[in-house]
Amino acid sequence: ALEKVGIRDADAFMAVTQGDNRNYFASQMAREVYHVKRVICRIYDPVREQIFRELGLETFSPTSIGAQIMFDMLLGQQEAK
What we know:
Elements: E1 12-15, H1 20-33, E2 38-42, H2 46-54, E3 58-60, H3 62-80
Parallel strand pairs: 1-2, 2-3
């Protein structure tokens, strides 16, 4: 599937399926097999995100980002009182 969409000529790759394991596998393939320069991997599970980051992947977790936004909003409400 990656070759059908031109992975061999890609400068960047983002893995954004609904599965953390699929995203990790696709990111590793893009980086290690196809030597894509920039690979970004979406990981929903914050624990896995940290593990995959420690393995050298550039990751982001919408779960962590969303939690931080909600925390910041909560603090903002408390500071306004």
